[in-house]
Amino acid sequence: xxxxxxxxxxxxxxxxxxxxxxxxxxxxxxxxxxxxxxxxxxxxxxxxxxxxxxxxxxxxxxxxxxxxxxxxxxxxxxxxxxxxxxxxxxxxxxxxxxxxxxxxxxxxxxxxxxxxxxxxxxxxxxxxxxxxxxxxxxxxxxx
Length: 143
Fold this sequence. Notes:
Blueprint lengths: L11 H10 L2 E5 L8 H11 L3 E5 L24 E4 L6 H10 L4 E4 L6 H9 L3 E4 L3 H8 L3
Parallel strand pairs: 1-2, 1-3, 3-4, 4-5
Helix pairs in contact: 1-5, 3-4
């Protein structure tokens, strides 16, 4: 992996612990479009007792959860910001995640932006890169 190495969570046990520990996931890029990966992954997370918070310019409700246009509009603390946007947009999302006090950021498969990763690490966020919780959960925790 060519990511900023120091601080990025790559160890299986650490990813397992991350998945178990964090309950509230703001899913940036989640809309009501059922054909998009964010829809399926957020449904998976919700089915595993995670609170999902849709974040999309349309601020649509998804999986019965109220949506917000921006992270800063969410009126409660967020544990993880799950990034489903193009890697070119990961920097601003990372800055917003830090500004709202998120504990961690999860960059989905193919969302690799070295500058965003460095920013997240510099801001003290826990960071997972180029992975999917719907793949990692069954692999590391089970059904």
